[in-house]
């Protein structure tokens, strides 16, 4: 079993910045994709950004140019830095990882964090 814990959310003024962190603990041999999703009230969960094991990144159009996703494989962590925040960035942000739990398996299992609230408001 693997447990993901996000941190770094909160109330931010429009135009401000924040850094989200997510730590994975438990039975981890390797992690393929690490990503951040968000879900605003009344909306479906959407991909914000993802980073693959070889460093390739992908961002949703609405955050391109003002967001950076990064990972630290030694610590099993993923980060999301966002700037020029807008009220429409308000949502619960979820960490997502595809984890290979053991050298004895080639399967990857998807895990989610519990979510952290980000509110952009003056």
Short description:
By secondary structure, this protein is mainly β. Helix content is about 0%, strand content about 55%. It has strands at about 1-5, 10, 20-25, 30-40, 45-50, 55-60, 65-70, 75-80, 90-100, 110, 115-120.
Structural features, described:
The chain contains no helices and 11 strands. It has strands spanning 2-7, 10-12, 18-26, 30-39, 46-51, 57-59, 67-72, 77-82, 91-100, 109-112, 116-120. Strands 2, 4, 5, 6, 9, 10 and 11 form a 7-stranded mixed β-sheet that branches. It has a 4-stranded antiparallel β-sheet with strand order 1-3-8-7, with no helix packed on it. It starts with a strand and ends with a strand. Helix content is 0%, strand content 56%. It is mainly β and 122 residues long.
